[in-house]
User: Fold these one by one.
Assistant:
Number 1:
Amino acid sequence: MAEAPQQQQQQQQQQEEEDEEQQQQQQEEEDEEQQQQQLNTEDTTEPDEGSEEPKEIVQTTPTRPLLSMRSMSSVDPDDDSPNMIAYRKIEEIVTRIQDETDGVPIRTVKSFMTKIPSVVTGTDIVQWLMKDLSIEDPAEAMHIGSLIAAQGYFFPISDHVLSLKDDGTFYRFQAPYFWPSNCWEPENTDYAIYLCKRTMQNKTRLELADYEAENLARLQRAFARKWEFIYMQAEAQVKIDRKRDKSERKILDSQERAFWDVHRPVPGCVNTTEMDIRKCRRMKNPHRVKKSVYGLAEEGTQSQSPVQTPSHHCRKGTKEDVEKEILFLNQQLDRHCMKMSKVAESLIAYTEQYMEYDPFVTAPEPSNPWTSDDPSFWDLEASKEPSQQRVKKWGFSLEEALKDPAGQELFLKFLESEFSSENLRFWLAVQDLKRMPQQEVGQRAQDIWAEFLAEGAPSSINLDSHSYERTSQNLKDPGRYSYEDAQDHIYKLMKSDSYARFLRSNVYQDLLMARKKPEMEQGRRTSLEKFTRSVGKSLTGKRLTGLMQSS
Amino acid sequence: MGEMEQLRKEADSLKDQITAARKAVQDSTLQEAAASITVVGRVQLKTRKTLRGHLAKIYAMHWSTDSKLCVSASQDGKLIVWDSITTNKVNAIPLKSSWVMTCAYAPSGNLVACGGLDNMCSIYNLKGKDGNVKVMRELAAHTGYLSCCRFLSDSEIITSSGDCTCVLWDIETGTQKTVFAGHQGDCMSLAVSPDFKFFISGACDFTAKLWDIREASCRQTFGGHESDINAIGFFPNGNAVITGSDDATCKLYDLRADQELITYQDSGIMCGVTSLAPSVSGRLLLAGYDDFNVNIWDALKAERVGVLAGHDNRVSCIGVSSDGMACCTGSWDSFLKIWN
């Protein structure tokens, strides 16, 4: 039931209400000179009996140009603190959605004997979001709308729960005065004044909900000694409210209620004002003083967040710092940058190679245990018989082969068959060394030297003289990383030499090519088992000669 | 101060040169290179399990390397080790300080760690002789909150803190082995490279840094975000880094090209990223946001291919198991959910 001439008035009224809300912050309660609206007769109970059309109210103020709502936002454009970024984005949307020409139709709706001023339906909001943000999926529009509603930027006029429904439910927009970007942290005294004043006004729509009544009772106990003061403040607020006209009051009351629904949510609802405690300390509050919703002087603050030891604020810009920075920058400059095209190729190639191993992209076989509740996939992984797919992965890189215990085992066996396992055993020993408790590192480092590098070592490895020298030096003060260079060198050797041969070897190829059925019965020997058994039995048997010839 | 002026000029000139060097290798973009690849089909993961038991906001979770157990930390002052398949609680460890912000599982499965506003990293031994889980070590030296910790082994752990530093500790002796200083804002998150030689940290100075553990130095710094970096992770091949920020975007940086490859953003996403995890192939990026959802991105095409909507409050942490089978999300609504 849109009434075209009304809409303009509504917007203007809302505008003036918002101006008033802002002014209220500064003015004293007694100072009523700033009220622009003509005073109306006192309101009694609902519903309206008269037919006071808002357009009959004489506007005593000159028509103000509709200021862009954005100017109402108190987010400092340079404020980059975490919540403010989100608020800024939301406020942009909230401003646009209320635009006279391009926004949603905000209207006064006639219902029974009353008028419901300045509302829009949930469906209108969702539709507008879909159009404005180019969203095809209504669910996504609902999600964004719910997010905005949860922060209290618009609210259902007949519910304390701040959610959005895609139907004919009526919603109203919040006054910028109450926007979260104002860094409100309203005290319980304010809340007490609010609840108290609600009980003074004889209107069904202002009746306290159960949880509010409980809250009020609790606050009365907590503020027993200053309840007289709170009562007086509430009375003063009621007096001010009475001076406003009916429609305006309906709107203001609902906006005020929505504000408290954000800061004192219905039990069970998410409190959107909760902040990540890691960010609390850094939240910028443009108002140094904790301000009261009702213009009270600052009371003692009750902090609910834990006391944090003020953390070290990082020093900036001493001469030493800049010198360090220059050193660092020089090192960076020396480093060779790879071409974007190459790097992109490499990333793409990696994902393509591994996509078949990604359960989120490719369904695993025989099945994903999480979806089918059948653990056979995991049983197979744990068994001694790797699947073909798994064996294939060992061929991707030496790293993959070594990452898989079965792959590592097979590679080791292969090397043993060639009498060249010392490299891998050295590499594994150094990996172990790096994970050891500090006390044992020294001894273990010496053991490794004795086993692999000393003169006449039982498992002598081949290091170039440079690495050998370096390592020998490191061993004078043995540490976790004493063998890092040596390990890198040996790794490269294995990669280019023995690993390549391993991939071409019969033992690997057989596994890779074999069509294997999952082994269900015990006691059935697979060719892999037979192989490892035979190698284990004897390193000098005739069979071995045969194997060496074939690989 | 003529000398300071000169030094600053020198630093600025070097920065310009680095920017030029980065530009010089921009012969293509990831988008161009991936142009011929079709977007991954819609990814629809369902909640398979809900882990109930925490009584307050969950701030962190971490999978064990066995892909079955995981540990979570909540502001109810408990560290819970879950068997994610049966949803049973294997251990429920009461903490001295309830303001916990991070937790970690050692690769061996023997230890877990946690920390928070107490500025300490507490190590717990899960495999103690008498079966009780006890504090094994309390690593104290940070002057700010503990935002993240990750084990290198049972002997060493790396922590990041609100005091703008990261530290490598020797667990046995409880001492700091290396302090990695350089960030100009609270360090919020860290991740260790697949080969355990490097780690990356994201901070409130909007940058991510790559550190060489052995050399004890910062190798590279990546910028571009417009707000705090809350989450960071390695791309599975170890050559790229993914960051998530309060500016509602995630970014992919390549270590060898020394610059940003792509940004994951959408005008419909207005809330900050709290956590992220790549799938095992790296093709998918799962990111948790302040708006209660997890968005799944095609990492190569930077398009959203899925949403996980199931939590009633902020998603604070996310992790993909090492076998890639399952993703676990933790939320301020006190629940953990397993999805796939």
Number 2:
Amino acid sequence: MPALSLHPSYVFSLRSEPLLPDAPSRLLPSVFIFFTRTSRPLRVSTREPDFTEEYRNGVVNGRVAGAGTPGREDPLPEGLRRESMPRHVAVIMDGNRRWARARGMPVGSGYEAGLRSLRRVVELCCRWGIRVLTVFAFSSDNWVRPKVGFLFLFVRDIRVSLIGDSTKLPKALQELIESVEETTKNNSRLHLVVAVSYSGQYDIVQACQSIALKVKDGHIEPEDINESLIEKELQTNIARLSHPDLLIRTSGELRLSNFFLWQLAYTELFFVESHWPDFGEPDFIEALRCFRQRHRRYGGQDP
Amino acid sequence: MGEDRFFGSSLTILRRFLFRILAVGPIPNHIAFIMDGNRRYAKKQNLEQGTGHEAGFPALMSMLKYCYELGVKFITVYAFSIDNFKRRPEEVQHVMDLMLEKIEGLLKEESIVNQYGVRVYFVGNLKLLNEPVRVAAEKAMLATANNTNTVLLICVAYTSSDEIVHSIQYSCQEKWDEMQASKVNGACNGEICKQEKECCVLKLVDLEKHMYMGVASDPDILIRSSGEMRLSNFLLWQSANCLLYSPSALWPEIGLRHLVWAVLNFQRNHSYLEKKKKQL
């Protein structure tokens, strides 16, 4: 079995379909690793990519040039305005298993369908100029789930980061994640933050523990502790915009499930009945339209 | 007049009957309210600017009455956020005067506090309040300290981030004092050792102990009126797993049907949540 490598000329794929309708299907490097509770990678295959010469030349410094140039944004759908678009969207991708069960399919199919949904949303964020997308795969509370899926995209100038507790993942996967983070750290079109085994309360506790150590070592006094000090210690500090403007949760569950507590102080929350695999462009547009209509006062005067 | 009284009594009987039926299922232990929409209500009804909050007070009293009749033990209301100090000074002063009036009203014989045996807490950074309001709040907390039936937590000069900052400041101070004390009595000789590491590490229980809201369990339902669905820096820590409900009614328009709907939703999800808690 070949070593998992991030050299762009290797393609690991279970499925290759174009993200962009106008991109030829073979121009799609994507890494999809899907593994079971036994932590055994499921059919990771490697093959030499079927790239054209010009595409091969387009791979520079780990960045793959997509059909659009970085920074170019498509016109927005009707009803949306650029000045009222959220800059950071967070998503709780709930309902993959229920979606599969409702169709009499195995749970694995639910996760695959969920990943397709994620790719759609990532693509839409790139098109519409959303800067940061945080996705909640599962929290430390949900570790009992038998299967987890990861999707790493390094097309379209996307930076990928992981927050949460990756120590329970297989060593090879941890190394792969670190490698992807390092390779994509200079990408700037979209910052995709994947929350794995992330707990909002634990994030606050670990931030407080770091601060407490600084107090103990005499670097700061307890009176100096303030909100921005805590912000700097949270795991979400890796993103320039760490507070989501909009949070979307699918599957009709009206709760936060210990995801992003501190960061959601002024976030608009949007709950959708459909399960995550069914969440598509119309649902996303609806969420963005609702966001546009919300009157965000931050406790102050009416505008 | 007689007819009104008869109608009122019939409604009360019907309501109590409805609550009896609801009580067959699990009843939430703690409900939190964000009372949003008072100013919009005043505008909508063409009332004088600033009088929306007065219109919201009867709605609050009704919701408290319904919740206590239903058997809810803890109720938390977001009365005034630290962010609200950014509003026009006249509006802030008006709200402070209203709060002072209502706090004094709470201590009267016929008030809801005595009717339902409510213990009142004022939760937040009370040092930011003006002196009359702060003194009245402390007096109310003292006067109701022996009540044990139900609890009302009124969040004033409160934000969740301020609560967490305050909690960590106090926790650090406490740990620091403990460390100094153990150095003095020889239990810890100041060098790095296993005991020191253990006693100096801040834990989740330390933080929760020092939260303003540490006197109550986490809310089961958080209701925000006026259809806006956001937390506005309210109970961020405590709402990790609670049901969020946002009826479109403005706060002065909120009624029994909204409470019933929230409780029914809570009951629908309750068994699933209990199963999840057992799994952890």
Number 3:
Amino acid sequence: MLSSQSYQDPGKMKDYHYSGPVEHRFSPYSFNGGTVLAVAGEDFAIVASDTRLSEGYSIHSRDSPKCYKLTDTTVIGCSGFHGDCLTLTKIIDARLKMYKHSNNKTMTSNAIAAMLSTILYGRRFFPYYVYNIIGGLDEHGKGAVYSFDPVGSYQRDTYKAGGSASAMLQPLLDNQIGFKNMEGVQHIPLSQERAVQLVKDVFISAAERDVYTGDALRLCIITKEGINEQTVPLRKD
Amino acid sequence: MALQDLCHLQEVFPDTDCSPFGTRTGYYDDGFPASSRSPLFNFFIPAAEFLQESPLQFGQVSSAFTSQDHLLSSLSWPPGLPQDSPQPVPLPFPMSHGTTTLAFLFQGGVLAAADTRSSCSGLVACPSSQKVLPIHSHLVGTTSGTSADCALWKRILARELRLYQLRHGRRLSTGGAAKLMSHMLHPFKGSELCVAATLCGWDASGPSLFYVCSDGTRLQGALFSVGSGSPYAYSILDQGVRWDLTLQEATSIAREAVYRATHRDAWSGNCVDVFHVSSAGWRRRGREDLREEYYRERDRQGGEDLREEYYRERDRRGGGGPEGGVLQREGQTRGGGPETE
């Protein structure tokens, strides 16, 4: 594992007791919280994020959604360090435009995913501190979710949670959508209504237990008709 | 070199303003793919150049190197940064590590197997990752280390091998591919890059197996296991692997080795992938979830039932011991296989 474990996680709550002299160094990173979730269905995909922007003990904004629309069939959710999220989405937008102008077609979801992987790896030694999840429709119209780690390792999933509450949400999704480790259950495919309801419930649970998640939930439902956005209020405390 | 195009690693010039956060981002500089500007890939690598240039602008250096200041002063760090101590940027997040992969030669070719768990400092980041990646029709590589590094380096290797094939009209041998990978990774020695791969291929000289690591190791062998679960896998492989195994037997040994390693090693688990490389190319056996195997094993051994039976018999036969029939025994864990992985 990395030798940088000796440095404290910037932005998270620090211990308030004296533990000896500590060398402070400027850290270019900061953790702004937020949770992102994406679910893929048969002919739809949902990308959802909370809208709280925090740092340490403060909340900077209650209305800072983390889903960004890339194309008519693709939405990306970025959580982590907000500065890197903004720059990364600007770079992706620029590359999308370049592709459109040189190839005369819009990038497909899996092409965007592959491109994002190389963009992230290009900064392997000073990474973007962003946890990305791309949700969209693939060329056949089926839902697709691509999840990334901060340095560009990615793969296609059916559902994925990322960000501060990901460790709490992912097991819940494994149980409800993946039917993992359950015996004697019928594996019914996920309908759009059930998926939307599940995402709302899951975020309400996350807001209960994770301090960095709350305020409001922004849902983007991607179908072949287009992208439909909904906002649902969450706990504000 | 391949990755330097991607990372813009050769853009450190003495007159550049090297503010620490002024890195250029993006792959295309002026609309043309970088590879069309760079020189054709050649195998001659002047050693002196490496010693003077560091591919890292101001990135992470492993702790083993930070302690040796005299060594570092011979490397010319980018201007603008203090020479006395490198400024590593501490990462706020951990990378994915921990695995069990193995590969061995036998009369039917090469067999490669791996688990499918990628963990990230205690959390299972992905229970179904693919650690055995095909590079071309007769070469398969197992990956261990940081998943992003392994995925990207395999892609770069596949690209370079394809270019070699187009330029020279023949495929590069497995040993050649291993040497190529080792040379491509060399500029990053000492950085946080972590790739430990075994290349399993069938070339003109038959099946062969090479181990390549980002610290510079390149070894040819008949049996390798890499990763945190490798000690457990080695114990199974060392007792079972022989040259004259059939494909069936070899598959079952590989599967057994991964299964035992996943049971004992916390960072390995979930499913097992088995690939077989022969003269006809690589073939993949369907991914198997090891959870079922745990239950089957437990049923075969009748584990807890036998133990219960034994204690009941002992009690029935007359108490035994100073407790006078009251038996103290440690608690049993029921169904402990998959959940405790």
